[in-house]
């Protein structure tokens, strides 16, 4: 064991029960041995030339694909600034591409996130919204949790009048295996604040998303 990483599956530093959690992290050698085992599990020979460096490559690729566990939401969302022009209308960043992995099969989820909020004096740098999507996307996920985590983290740190998040994604566990439904898309949405309490705000988000505003 060479380190202990904090696992933040559901929120900024908390698990689904609201308690902070940490898991023991194996060494890179241990991770490589696990990949070698999986190679044998699929019927491969880890000793053949083409596969000699594969455990190392996979262990490193996993570090990149799952780098979200190391991202600090406080750092990403900590820098907000006052909107001096007095703009207090909907800010919508749409079509943010992301790659995630489903927590059931550990295969890719490929999709787009649409994130909107109604400022209450302070605004976020636009790139930070895309960074939040990546920070939660680069973890094992369900689409529902991903949607809720993006909304919650922006809601808690920026404290806007409301946050609206919609995600459209294709789950490779439904495409490449199992029911094999190529082209099926899953849509999820979550609303906080006035998007929840005022139907016309939610309708405005939806029509702006569809380009009708
Ligand atoms: N709600 C939800 N379900 C998901 C998501 N990603 C994958 N799943 C589903 O998780 C379920 C896991 O079902 P299980 O019956 O335990 O696993 P399985 O035998 O591999 O299921 P099949 O995919 O039907 O073959 C499947 O129905 C997947 O489609 C997600 O983001 N949200
Ligand atoms: Zn899956």
UniProtKB/TrEMBL annotation:
- Domain GTP cyclohydrolase I, chain residue ranges per copy: 32-209
Q: Which GO terms describe its cellular component?
A: cytoplasm
Pfam families attached here? GTP_cyclohydroI
Identify the enzyme class: hydrolase
**Top-rank taxon, per record:** Bacteria
State the EC number(s): 3.5.4.16
Membrane-spanning regions, if any?
A: none
Kindly list the positions annotated as binding Zn(2+).
Answer: 102, 105, 173
Identify the SUPFAM superfamilies for this entry: Tetrahydrobiopterin biosynthesis enzymes-like
**Coiled coil stretches, renumbered:** none
Q: What Gene Ontology biological process does one annotation of this record name? A: tetrahydrobiopterin biosynthetic process
Q: Which reaction does it catalyse?
A: GTP + H2O = 7,8-dihydroneopterin 3'-triphosphate + formate + H(+)
Q: Which GO terms describe its molecular function?
A: GTP binding; GTP cyclohydrolase I activity; zinc ion binding
Keywords tagged on the record:
GTP-binding, Hydrolase, Metal-binding, Nucleotide-binding, One-carbon metabolism, Zinc
InterPro entries (alphabetical): GTP-CH-I_C/QueF, GTP-CH-I_N, GTP_CycHdrlase_I, GTP_CycHdrlase_I_CS, GTP_CycHdrlase_I_dom
So what family is this one in? Belongs to the GTP cyclohydrolase I family.
NCBIfam families documented for this protein: folE, PRK09347.1-2, PRK09347.1-3
Spell out the protein name for this chain: GTP cyclohydrolase 1
Q: Which organism is it from?
A: Hoeflea prorocentri
Gene name tied to this protein: folE
């Amino acid at each position: 064991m060479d380190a202990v990483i904090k696992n933040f599956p559901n929120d900024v530093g908390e698990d689904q029960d609201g308690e902070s959690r940490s898991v023991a992290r194996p060494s890179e050698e241990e991770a490589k041995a696990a990949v070698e085992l999986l190679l044998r599990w699929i019927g491969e020979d880890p000793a053949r030339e083409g596969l000699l460096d594969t455990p190392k490559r996979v262990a490193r690729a996993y570090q990149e694909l799952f780098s979200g566990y190391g991202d600090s939401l406080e750092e990403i969302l900590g820098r907000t600034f006052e909107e001096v022009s007095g703009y207090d209308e909907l800010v919508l960043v749409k079509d943010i591409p992301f790659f995630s992995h489903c927590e059931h099969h550990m295969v890719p989820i490929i999709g787009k996130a649409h994130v909107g909020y109604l400022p209450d004096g302070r605004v976020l740098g636009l790139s930070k919204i895309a960074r939040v999507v990546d920070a939660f996307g680069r973890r094992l996920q369900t689409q529902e949790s991903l949607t809720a985590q993006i909304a919650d983290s922006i809601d808690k740190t920026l404290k806007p009048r409301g946050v609206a998040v919609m995600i459209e994604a294709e789950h490779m566990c439904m495409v490449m295996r199992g029911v094999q439904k190529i082209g099926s898309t899953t849509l999820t949405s979550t609303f906080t604040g006035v998007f929840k309490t005022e139907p016309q705000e939610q309708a405005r988000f939806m029509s702006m998303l569809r380009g009708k505003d």
